[in-house]
Amino acid sequence: MPEISSVRYVRTQSSAMMFVPRAVAKKAAKSNVTRPAVDKIREGDPLCPKRSPVTPSPATASGKGKEKANSRSVAHSDDEYAFLLRMTLSNFSLWDNQPLAELLTSTMDADGYVPLSGIVSLSPYFQALELQPAQSDLSRAVRAHLPEFEIRMRIEEPSRNNGWSSYHVDQQGDGGGFELRPKGTSWGAKCQTAYSMEEQDWRSRTLYIENIPRTLHTLYSIYKFMSSILPPPKTSGPSRPPTLDQFRHHFERQIESITFPPRCNAPDGEIPRSKGFAFIVFSSPSPMENFHQAWRWDTSSKTKVGSPMPLVDSQDAYPKALSHGFRSLPKAQWDTLRDEYLKYQSGIIAGAAHAESSEIISPTISSSRKEAPTPSTPGVSEQSAAASSWFPVGCLVLVKHLNPSTNRTTLKKLLGKAFQADVANGEERVNYVDFQKGLDTCYVRLNTSTDADALCDYFTERTVAQSSPLDDSGEALTDGSKLQAIKVEKVGGRKEEVYWEKIPEKIRNQALERAALPNGRTDTSGRDEGNKRRRVR
User: Fold this and answer.
1) Which parts of the sequence are annotated with region: Disordered (predicted)?
2) Is the pLDDT confidence value at 475 over 60?
């Protein structure tokens, strides 16, 4: 039979009525293409985000699930599917996604085709979709919008079992589908071209964009938005300006990747979502610089002076970009700003934990709070000052070497261990834990000065560390441990006064009452009676 829809059929010898396609499932010998060593990029760098192992969804694990998933699939245009495939098979993606590159070079057959299902399963762009697309839809998108690729249908002969009445499809094989190959080259040559690039080459081609309109949530919508505001390619001499189709075609060949940066402390495998900023990787530095010149980081002026109105079919994108403050910054400058910010952040954290309180806390006292009275007679003894003090003297301690990701509840249980020998619930002796996430130190207010001394003695006699954020019992340190032992020191003098100056007067008076009572227990009988009277009324 002649070739129909890129599928060649041959007639079998067993039956005149049976037709099967030619065998195309032969695997070629493994390619000799080797991936060169690439310097490891700093963890968390959005240029090369971590790729989590992709597992097939339950809907695609069996034939029945395929039909059900296809019937409920979200409608996407052929242009969007073509965009996702182009990003998946770009040089940057092949350089970044090593499992995909190995699949292309190891599973292609003698004709250079690889299963389309394998490409989709290893693509982070398709994995971000709620439901996987049907291969027939992808095939239509390739034929309509990706002339640089060739696609064909592959149908395998079902194995005969118990005569003519029943057939069994081998579940180990693909059982048919579509196959893809590049036109005019091979997967090995395409991967070798991607491997020839270095990390610094891609960094020089990466652009950071922010203030993306909030209505744009997907990579494809951002891609269409950028195609509407991208300045047309520069022309020299009397050449005519490009048409809209030529402009779009030129832009499609410039974009290598569009990614959303992962959020801070995101778990492995989490799919990043749009937060108004993204990273764009271009094929060469020239188009990246051309876009950056049109949308510079400095947005002080309301209009982009000197940048021509882009050649677009929609006049809404350009004013929308201006109104939202859309701007861009090369990756090298973005790295510099990030390093400056991280250095500034670490300096603030270190200063808050170890510097003198006079440098951390402003001495200015809010007018709504009571100003600390000063003794009228100089030379007053420390005991008399403590007796007439406006705050509970000796009830404040500073705890060091904590887990920065812990919480107040866990710390209160951990510190309450120091009083379990005297009372059933040691947490009652701990009045308040003044802890902020991200710091490894915190201030702790105890009920009495005796409780503060007992807490200091407890951690002085024991070498205990907090092994995890939720460790509320402490872990005894052994030789070779990388953890630091918890240290508790009493706060006094001017440092203690500055701390209590920032505490509201109501809470400060309650701490004074608690410190004056036996064992630091607050007398709440009068308060309970007042509540009862209010309830009766």
Assistant:
1) 28-73, 363-383, 511-537
2) yes
